[in-house]
Write a structure and sequence with these properties.
Blueprint (H helix, E strand, L loop, with lengths): L2 E6 L3 H13 L4 E7 L5 E2 L4 H6 L4 H4 E3 L1 H6 L2 E5 L3 E5 L4 E4 L4 E3 L2 E4 L3 E3 L12 E3 L3 H11 L4 E5 L3 H12 L3 E6 L11 H13 L3 E4 L3 E6 L3 E6 L4 E3 L2 E4 L3 E3 L15 E3 L10 E3 L4 E3 L7 H16 L12 E4 L6 E5 L8 E7 L4 E8 L2 E8 L5 H10 L9 H4 L9 H7 L5 E3 L4 E2 H11 L4 H8 L9 H12 L19 H10 L5 H7 L11 H12 L13 H5 L2 E2 L5 E3 L10 H13 L4 E4 L5 E6 L4 H8 L11 E6 L13 H12 L8 E6 L13 E6 L2 E6 L11 E6 L2 H18 L6 H8 L1 H7 L3 H15 L5 H7 L1 H5 L4 H9 L1
Parallel strand pairs: 1-2, 1-9, 2-5, 9-21, 11-18, 12-13, 12-18, 13-14, 20-22, 34-35, 35-36
Antiparallel strand pairs: 3-4, 6-7, 7-8, 10-19, 15-16, 16-17, 23-24, 24-27, 25-26, 26-27, 28-29, 30-31, 31-33, 32-33, 36-37, 37-38
Helix pairs in contact: 1-8, 9-11, 11-14, 12-14, 15-17, 20-26, 21-22, 22-25
Length: about 800
C-alpha cells in the first residue's frame, strides 16, 4: 500500500510541489487534491490577461484535467475542506467527502482583503482574486461605464488596465502619494503614472476611502476629505491575508499565517503548509517565486531526499500591464547606509537604479527597459561583491560590457527559480537539456513550461541554454505564426505562392497544421495572405474574419454597432450632413460623434438595422472596422489657409479614393498637411504627406496610439503623380512583407527604413509594385452595397429568432 498524500488547495504553490514530487518519486504516494474552485490548476498571475481580453480560461490552465488522470491523482473540484482530524488523520469537505491521509499539505492560499467600509456589501463591489471575479467584471462592463479600483499596487493596476480594455472609465484610488510604493521608488512610480495616464487611467492619490454610496447597487465612493467619485463598479485590490480558517480548530499553530519551520512542517506531525497561507520566520509571501521555492524543499523532504531547509526568499516584481515594463527586486529605497547608481533617459522613457550596501547589490528598480532584471536579481540573491566596480553594474566596464548573462547563470544555484510564472528552476532546465536533448527556448518551453506564460524570462532561459551547451549548441527556432504550426510568416507565404494554394483549408492540409481547423490567430492571417498573393483566385473567407470585419461595423461593449460612412478627405456637403442627421433620427441613434479622422460616427446601432441604414445612407463604407485604409485626414491647405503651400484637401481625397477598401496587414491611417505646420498630424500616421515649397515630403511608419512613434522621412517629391506612385508602391511593399496584424510602425522598425528605400529606389521597382496593388484595387467592392444587394448576406443580420420564424413560414 502506498502512503497517502492529501493536498488541500489546487493552486499554483501546492500543485507545483506535487509536480516536483512526481519527478523525484513518481510512484511513492497515492495523491488526492481538493480545490474549492470548479477549475483545474490555473495560473492566477495571468488573470489580468483574461480580464484584458488577451487570454481566456483555457489559455491560463497550467495542468488540465488529463494531467491529473495521467498521474493517477484524485482531484475533487468544487469541494472546500472544512475539517482536519489530526488524531485520526482525516480531512472532510463541505460536500460530505472524508479522506484519510498519511501526509497532509495545506496550501489554501490567501483571501482578498475587503475594506470594512459602510456599503461594502452593495452590488457592484468585488475583489480581484479569481476567474469568478474576472467574469463579474467582464459582465459588468457590458452594462456600466464607470469603474473605481481601490489600491494602486501591482494587483490594482493590473485590474485597472483590464477594465480600460473593457472600455470602462477607470479611476485608481491610492492612500499613498505615489503608486506601487511597496515596489517602486518615487521616480519610477511617477514615470509609471505618466504612462498609465496616457493610456487613459485616472488617479486619486492620498485618498482615504470612507464609505460606498448607493442603495442596492454602488453609485460612488466618498473619501474622508468629503470629496466623492462616481462608480458603477468598485474593485478592491488593497492586499491579501493568509487563508487560515481551516487550521484554526485543528491544533495547528497560527500567527498571521500557518507557522512552519525551514522544512515547511507545522507543529503537528505529518502536516505541512506552503504558499500564501504559510508563515516562515515571521514572513508570509504573496509572490509566486518564493512559494515555488518552498514547494521544491517540501517535495524533496517528502521524497526522502536530503535537502537544505528553506531559508526565505528575496522577492522581485514585474508589472505585466500592456505597454509598461517595470521591474523591482530587493531593497530599492535609499537609506543612510546605502548608495545607488542611477540611469535616467527622459527621451526614451528609461530609468534604472541599483542600490548597494557594503559593496553588495541589495536592490534594483527598472522602468522602460527591464532587460537587466534577471542579471541584477541574480546578483542580489548571490550577494556578489562589486566593491570598486559599482558603476559597471549598470554602465558596463568602460567598453560597454557588464557581466554577461551566462556568467550570472553560472553563479546561480540549481534551486533558483528562472521562470516565476511556472516555478521552473535553473536545475530543471539544465536537466531538460542534459537528459531530454532540449536545445532551444521552444524545446525548454514545451518540456518544462519555462517562458510559456508571460514570456519575461526568455532571455534568462536562453542564457541557461548557452551556459549548458555553449553558443554553438543552442538551436535558434523561429516561432510559427500561431501554435498550429512551426512555420513563420515568410515560409507560409512562400508555400502559398510556390504551391499555388488558394484556400485556408488547402494551406492547413498541405502544410500539415497540427490543428486541422486552425485557430483565431491563424485563420484571419491565412485569409489575408491568400488574398494578398492571389487577389483574383482567392475568394474571401468571411468566416475567417473577426466579428467587426464580418459585419462591416464596429461592435460596441453593449452588443450594438457603430457606422462610419466614407467622407473623402474629411470633406462633406450640407446635403450629406442633412441625410446623416435624418437617418440618425430614423434609427434612433443614441450618439453621433466626430472621430479623430474627421468622420461622423453613428454609435449604438442594432445589428438588424445595419443593412437598412447602409441603404438609406447610400454612402460608401468608411472601413472604420477593417484592417485596411481607414481615413486620410486633411487640413484645408492652400484652399483656404494663408499658410498653405499645396492643395492638401485635393491630395487627401485623391489618396483616399485611390486606396479605399484596400486590405492591409493592419489598419492604415493617412494624413495630408498643407504646410510644415502639420495641422493634420501627418507625422504620426502610417503614411503622412506634408506640403513644402515646390513639392511634398512623404513620411512613413508613424503611430499615434499607445505606442507613440513619429514618422521617418521616406523621400521628397515634386508632383502629385509622384505622391500617388510612391504611396502605392509603399503600401504594396508593406502588404507583401508585413506580418498579419503588424502596424507599419512595427514593420518599419523590423525590416528597416533602408530596406524599404532600397525596395522603392528605382522607377521600375515602384511601377511593378503599383501594378500589383492596382490589380487588387480593381477587384474591390463596397461591402455595404454588396450586403444590401444580396439577400443571403442580408439574412445574416436578422436575429436568430426571426430567422427561425421565417423558416417555419
Amino acid at each position: 500500500m502506498k502512503n497517502k498524500i492529501v493536498l488541500v488547495g489546487n493552486g499554483m504553490a501546492g500543485v507545483s510541489c506535487i509536480e516536483q514530487l512526481l519527478k523525484i518519486a513518481p510512484n511513492h504516494y497515492e495523491i488526492t487534491i481538493f480545490g474549492s474552485e470548479p477549475h483545474p490548476n490555473y495560473n492566477r498571475i495571468l488573470l489580468s490577461s483574461v480580464l484584458a481580453g488577451d487570454a481566456d480560461m483555457k489559455d491560463i490552465v497550467i495542468n488540465d484535467w488529463s494531467w491529473y488522470e495521467e498521474n493517477h491523482i484524485t482531484l475533487h473540484t468544487g469541494q472546500t475542506v472544512n475539517k482536519i482530524d489530526t488524531e485520526r488523520k482525516l480531512v472532510s469537505t463541505d460536500g460530505g467527502i472524508t479522506v484519510p491521509y498519511d501526509e497532509l499539505i495545506i496550501a489554501t492560499g490567501s483571501l482578498p482583503f475587503i475594506l470594512p467600509l459602510p456599503g461594502a456589501d452593495k452590488e457592484g463591489v468585488i475583489a480581484f482574486r479569481d476567474i469568478k471575479d474576472c467574469e463579474k467584471m467582464i459582465e459588468t462592463a457590458k452594462n456600466y461605464k464607470k469603474a473605481v479600483v481601490i489600491g494602486g499596487g501591482l494587483l490594482g493596476l493590473e485590474a485597472a488596465r483590464g477594465l480600460l480594455n473593457l472600455n470602462m472609465e477607470v479611476s485608481v484610488v491610492h492612500i499613498n502619494e505615489y503608486l506601487m510604493n511597496l515596489q517602486l521608488d518615487r521616480t519610477a512610480s511617477f514615470l509609471l503614472q505618466q504612462e498609465l495616464e496616457r493610456q487613459g487611467m485616472k488617479f486619486l492619490l492620498k485618498k482615504n476611502s470612507e464609505s460606498i454610496l448607493g442603495k442596492k447597487r454602488v453609485t460612488g465612493l466618498r473619501f474622508t476629505d468629503g470629496s466623492e467619485v462616481e462608480a458603477d463598479l468598485i474593485v478592491m485590490a488593497v492586499g491579501i491575508r493568509p487563508n487560515i480558517a481551516l487550521p484554526k480548530s485543528s491544533g495547528i499553530d497560527i500567527n498571521r499565517g500557518i507557522v512552519v519551520n525551514d522544512f515547511l512542517e507545522t507543529n503537528v506531525p505529518n502536516v505541512y503548509s506552503i504558499g500564501e497561507c504559510a508563515e516562515h520566520r515571521g514572513v508570509a509571501y504573496g509572490l509566486v517565486a518564493p512559494l515555488y521555492e518552498q514547494g521544491a524543499v517540501l517535495a524533496k523532504r517528502l521524497a526522502g531526499v536530503e535537502t537544505a531547509g528553506y531559508q526565505g526568499s528575496v522577492v522581485s516584481t514585474k508589472l505585466k500591464v500592456s505597454g509598461v515594463d517595470v521591474f523591482s527586486a530587493g531593497e530599492y529605497a535609499d537609506k543612510p547606509d546605502t548608495r545607488a547608481v542611477r540611469v535616467q533617459d527622459d527621451f526614451e522613457g528609461i530609468y534604472k537604479k541599483v542600490v548597494i550596501r557594503e559593496g553588495k547589490v541589495i536592490g534594483a528598480v527598472l522602468f522602460g527597459d527591464i532587460s537587466d532584471g534577471s542579471r541584477l536579481f541574480a546578483m542580489i540573491r548571490n550577494g556578489e561583491d562589486v566593491t570598486g566596480k559599482e558603476k559597471t553594474v549598470l554602465l558596463g566596464d568602460g567598453g560597454g560590457n557588464a557581466k554577461s548573462g551566462v556568467e550570472m547563470v553560472a553563479a546561480m544555484s540549481d534551486d533558483e527559480i528562472v521562470c516565476g510564472c511556472n516555478g521552473v528552476s535553473k536545475g530543471a532546465i539544465v536537466q531538460a537539456v542534459q537528459e531530454k536533448g532540449c536545445s532551444s527556448v521552444n524545446d525548454i518551453k514545451a518540456c518544462t513550461k519555462a517562458s510559456a506564460s508571460c514570456g519575461g524570462c526568455k532571455p534568462l532561459v536562453a542564457d541557461v541554454l548557452t551556459y549548458v551547451l555553449g553558443e554553438d549548441g543552442v538551436k535558434t527556432v523561429k516561432e510559427g505564426i500561431c501554435g498550429c504550426t512551426t512555420l513563420g510568416r515568410d515560409e507560409v507565404v512562400e508555400a502559398i505562392r510556390g504551391m499555388r494554394l488558394t484556400t485556408t483549408k488547402e494551406v492547413m492540409n498541405v502544410l500539415e497544421w497540427s490543428n486541422t481547423e486552425g485557430c483565431s490567430k491563424c485563420r484571419p492571417a491565412l485569409n489575408y495572405y491568400l488574398g494578398m498573393v492571389w487577389p483574383e483566385e482567392h475568394e474571401d473567407e468571411r468566416e475567417s474574419r473577426f466579428v467587426n470585419e464580418r459585419n462591416h461595423a464596429n461592435i460596441q461593449k453593449d452588443g450594438t454597432y457603430s457606422v462610419v460612412p466614407r467622407m473623402y478627405g474629411g470633406v462633406t456637403t450640407p446635403k450629406d450632413l442633412k441625410k446623416i442627421a435624418e437617418i440618425a433620427e430614423k434609427y434612433e441613434v443614441p450618439l453621433v460623434k466626430m472621430t479623430g479622422g474627421q468622420r461622423i460616427d453613428l454609435l449604438g446601432v442594432k445589428k438588424e438595422d445595419l443593412p437598412g441604414m447602409w441603404a438609406d445612407l447610400d454612402m460608401p463604407s468608411g472601413y472604420a472596422y477593417g484592417k485596411s485604409l481607414r481615413t486620410v485626414k486633411t487640413c484645408v491647405g492652400s484652399t483656404f489657409c494663408r499658410f498653405g503651400t499645396q492643395d492638401a484637401i485635393g491630395m487627401g481625397i485623391q489618396l483616399e479614393k485611390r486606396f479605399e477598401g484596400l486590405n492591409t496587414p493592419a489598419k492604415v491611417k493617412m494624413a495630408v498637411s498643407g504646410c510644415p505646420r502639420n495641422c493634420a498630424e501627418a507625422t504620426i500616421k502610417d503614411f503622412g504627406v506634408v506640403a513644402i515649397d515646390g513639392g511634398w515630403e512623404l513620411h512613413v511608419g508613424g503611430n499615434g496610439g499607445t505606442k507613440l512613434r513619429g514618422t521617418d522621412l521616406l523621400c521628397k517629391v515634386k508632383t502629385e503623380e509622384e505622391v500617388l506612385e510612391w504611396s502605392g508602391a509603399y503600401l504594396q511593399y508593406y502588404r507583401e512583407t508585413g506580418k498579419y496584424n503588424e502596424r507599419t510602425s512595427e514593420w518599419v522598425e523590423r525590416v528597416g527604413l533602408d530596406t524599404i528605400k532600397e525596395a522603392l529606389e528605382t522607377k521600375e521597382d515602384r511601377t511593378a509594385l503599383v501594378e500589383r496593388i492596382e490589380k487588387t484595387l480593381d477587384l474591390m467592392k463596397d461591402p455595404w452595397k454588396e450586403i444590401i444587394e444580396q439577400q443571403m448576406l442580408r439574412e445574416t443580420f436578422v436575429p436568430m429568432e426571426e430567422q427561425s420564424a421565417a423558416e417555419l413560414v
